[in-house]
Description:
An eight-stranded antiparallel sheet has the order 4-1-3-2-8-5-7-6. It is built from nine helices and eight strands. Helices cover 19% and strands 19% of the residues.
Amino acid sequence: xxxxxxxxxxxxxxxxxxxxxxxxxxxxxxxxxxxxxxxxxxxxxxxxxxxxxxxxxxxxxxxxxxxxxxxxxxxxxxxxxxxxxxxxxxxxxxxxxxxxxxxxxxxxxxxxxxxxxxxxxxxxxxxxxxxxxxxxxxxxxxxxxxxxxxxxxxxxxxxxxxxxxxxxxxxxxxxxxxxxxxxxxxxxxxxxxxxxxxxxxxxxxxxxxxxxxxxxxxxxxxxxxxxxxxxxxxxxxxxxxxxxxxxxxxxxxxxxxxxxxxxxxxxxxxxxxxxxxxxxxxxxxxxxxxxxxxxxxxxxxxxxxxxxxxxxxxxxxxxxxxxxxxxxxxxxxxxxxxxxxxxxxxxxxxxxxxxxxxxxxxxxxxxxxxxxxxxxxxxxxxxxxxxxxxxxxxxxxxxxxxxxxxxxxxxxxxxxxxxxx
Length: 421
């Protein structure tokens, strides 16, 4: 079957350092977080990801085999994810406004990638700044297809997530008709780009929820290629499919043989979770207890009983007393492919810290998981974490959740998801 985007089972071509910063659109294993929580930071790559001298004069413009920027390496230090609802009720009107917003955002994204915000919007706060690897990603929610009268075009992987034990979901932090994902190395560049994109559709859409996230900056790292840490102090994102690997396509990119979902072939599906970390409770634990909750050493991220971060966890290892070296309820044990029928996804995790309020500190993880099918990826892992009694659940609270279809970027189409209509 002929498809746009990378062929199933075939890895994207190797690219130069400059090429790694290219692309338009939207964007497993066990690391410090299988699928339930801890996401991937800057993924390691043979292409030099994590280089603090990366060229910030470039943006992620110009689609490369249909890959969206959010799945390319190196991972940006800052992102802002926004979900909007369309200001319409009748299916025809919802459909019309969805096309209009996608057309406008697709055109603006191309302009941003090609020229940078200062050239497009004089007086922008980003004036005087490089594009800083700016990348714009667009996604469509299942609710949009239902409201637009396109339920028959809804791909099966775009199913609603089931409820999970760790869920404390707030409706206002969930769902959304469309997703806007903006990433860059500089937070001011991200902020100005989000304002520019939302300003162009203000009469057609209303923000449902938004959340900015960050990682450590590569320029401040002693070893820029090292996996970053999250707010719990854990190395986060040890194992991930890389765009340059053969396993990337079958694990991350969508394929729909037959049926009416060909508009998503070569795209991906993203699960977005807002996960509050109960940091006061976590910090009260002794370091050794924290290691047993996750199953990895704090010092270097190695699995308990292992010597290096990249070592495969030995789930059969026993200590002198005959107890599992990696506890039965440790996060990495329950999230392992052995427990989840080989479930894997591309995990991108970003910290968020909104400060202190009446409900204590609002900080945690903006977790995004990009995959070919959330049912056999995120849902399979999160269900195992629930049923196995993941020890980490006592220290986190899932407050927001959404699933979006992220169509491929096709050079011969005027806007993202053009083939849907």
